[in-house]
Every structure is written in C-alpha cells, then in structure tokens.
Amino acid sequence: MTKIYTLVNQKGGVGKTTSTINLAAYLAKLGQRVLVVDLDPQANATSCLGVDKLLVEGSTYDALLGEEDIFPSILLNERLQLSLLPSSPALAGAEVELVDELARESRLRKAIMQVANRYDYVLIDCPPSLGLLTVNGLMAAIDGVIVPVQCEYLALEGLGQLTQTIERVRAALFPELKVRGVILTMFDNRTNLSTDVVKEVNRHFPNQVFKSIIPRSIRLAEAPSYGLPISEYAPTSVGAEAYDALAKELLKGDK
Fold first, then answer.
1. Which residues pair with 148 in a beta bridge?
2. What values do phi and psi take at 39, rounded to 5?
3. How far apart are CA 174 and CA 158, in angstroms?
4. What is the three-class DSSP state of 49?
5. CA-based R_g, the chain, Å
6. Mean pLDDT along residues 4-23
7. Cβ–Cβ < 8 Å for 182, 147
8. Quick check: 242 pLDDT over 80?
9. Stated pTM of the model
10. Which residues are registered as beta bridge partners of 124?
11. What is the C-alpha end-to-end distance of the chain, expressed in Å?
C-alpha cells in the first residue's frame, strides 16, 4: 500500500524541505519507490534535487489546475532512483486561480491518486504558510502529516497555530487527518534549550515524536547548493546518519 505523507510547518527555516529530500533519498536507498511532490512556489525541493525550476515543462501547478494525467510531469533522478513532481514559478499564482474552482481543496489529492500505485511513498513538501496550497497538501495526506520542529524556543510558538489548522481541516474537510510523527531538527547538544524543546515537544505530542533526532549540521546546510541529498553529498556525516536512522524508523513503523 502506498504511504502518502505531507511535511508541514507554517514556520520557515525548520528543516522541512531538508527533511523531505533526505528522508525520500534514504527511503529510496532502502529499496522503496519514492515520489517527492514540491508544493512550495519557492521550489526549494526541486532545486535540492538538481532541477532548474525555470526549465520544467510540467509541475505541481498543472496538478492543481490541469485535468490531465500528471505522470508525464514527473521526473526520475536515476542517480538517486527518486522521482520528483517539481514546482515552478507559476505555482505562486495558484492560490488566487483556485479560488473559483470546484473542490479546490482536493485538487492535489485527486492528481496524486492517479499515480499513487506506482510508488511506495509519496512525500509532499508544503510552503511555509497556512494557505490554500498547504490545505491541498493536508487533504492529500492520506496517511498523515509529518511535522519538522526546530529545537529552538520560537518553533514551539508556531506549533499551536499549526495544530489549530490541522483541527480545522479535520473538522471541515478531512476527519481522518492525523499526525504521523514529529521530527526534531537542528538539535544542538551543547545547549540546554535544545534539550528543553525536546522535552516540551514530547509533552505536547506524546508517543508521536520520532526517536531519530536531526542534529545541527554544516554538511546538511551545504548539500542543497550541490543539488544533492546528504546521502550523496556527505554520506558519513552525522546528518546523514540521522536521516538514515529516521528513514529506517519510519519504514519499520509502517510495516
């Protein structure tokens, strides 16, 4: 059965795209057929996989506003054995264009279901906002949302707002929407603050926080500029080991 997860957090800079790309790369290394869906107009996930957003012929924009099969728009990275539905600059106007469309909240879900049986995992990278694009991402999260949380104080403040959004979508549109797990990112074991945030997040999301914690890492920060996940850029780094462990933890929990 295909697992469809949406990585979401309305706060920027929490490691959402980094987690999407690296989790996908390690799932692919573990033999899974993986599709990354870039739902962010900034197209960071697209760039992180070495694709120029200005040159793509089909994108998530077409998935949201077109009626055709999205499979021709999906790109295969043969080196990583990883598939990508890229983003493009046109996606920036999608929220306005979707306003008058029927079932506008479910457009992405409908498009993904056309191709879902080709993959073991579909990971959707949402923009850092709580607009219509993110609602589409939440509606497509058949198996739940994964929430990256930075190990800093301000990250905790945004969790309440995100939780409220999930509750509103659950109440109005998708009662089965659930949180699959929380990823703790940018952990610095030299500070008491990081340790305190870990404790606080576990208190807010009991039994829902992944045990694999992602450390703050220069190598993780460098990898996107080379268009590579950490598994290819620095496979022996602490960041690589953490995402490898996270992918194995997710896979084990899904069996």
1. 183
2. -100, 15
3. 22
4. coil
5. 17
6. 93
7. yes
8. yes
9. 0.95
10. 6, 37
11. 10
Only one residue has tokens 């404790």, namely: 199
**Position 25 confidence tier, pLDDT thresholds 50, 70, 90:** very high
Give the CA angle between residues 152, 5, 101 to the nearest 5°: 105
* pLDDT recorded at residue 103: 84
In this model, does residue 99 exceed pLDDT 90? no
For residues 146-157, average pLDDT: 86
d(CA 224, CA 45) in angstroms, rounded, equals 9
Q: Strand 82-85 relative to strand 145-150: parallel, antiparallel, unpaired?
A: unpaired
Copy the structure tokens of residue 221: 């920060």
What DSSP designation does 214 have?
P
Exposed (0-12), middle (13-18) or buried (19+): which is 127, by Cβ within 10 Å? Answer: buried
Q: In this predicted model, what pLDDT tens digit does every residue of 184-196 receive, in sequence order?
A: 999 998 888 899 9
Q: What is the DSSP string of 185-198?
A: ESB-TT-HHHHHHH
The rounded distance, in Å, linking the Cα atoms of 143 and 177 is 8
Tens digit of pLDDT for each residue in 119-150?
999 999 999 888 899 999 999 999 999 999 99
Q: What 3-state class would DSSP assign to 14?
A: coil
- Of 219, 240, 232, 225, nearest to 48 by C-alpha is 225
Helices (H) and strands (E) in the chain, counts: 11, 7
185 φ, ψ (degrees, to nearest 5): -120, 160
Q: How far apart are CA 219 and CA 209, in angstroms?
A: 24
